[in-house]
Amino acid sequence: MLELKISCETADEARIYLNAPQYHNLLEDLRVALRNAYKHGSDADVLKVVENFFGDITVACDHNQGPY
User: Is residue 53 in some structural domain?
Assistant: First the structure.
């Protein structure tokens, strides 16, 4: 059995740690999409990727709902 204890001052701070895998997945999805747009698309495709991810990144930065 593995027990992990994270001491945090607030619930919002705890959510940051608990959502870390989701944050990583969001960044990895963004990285892959940007790589593909740079490699196979145009500047317009890169901008479209940024626009598509902007909402999720904003929510993730707010630390209140998690990235997805």
Answer: yes
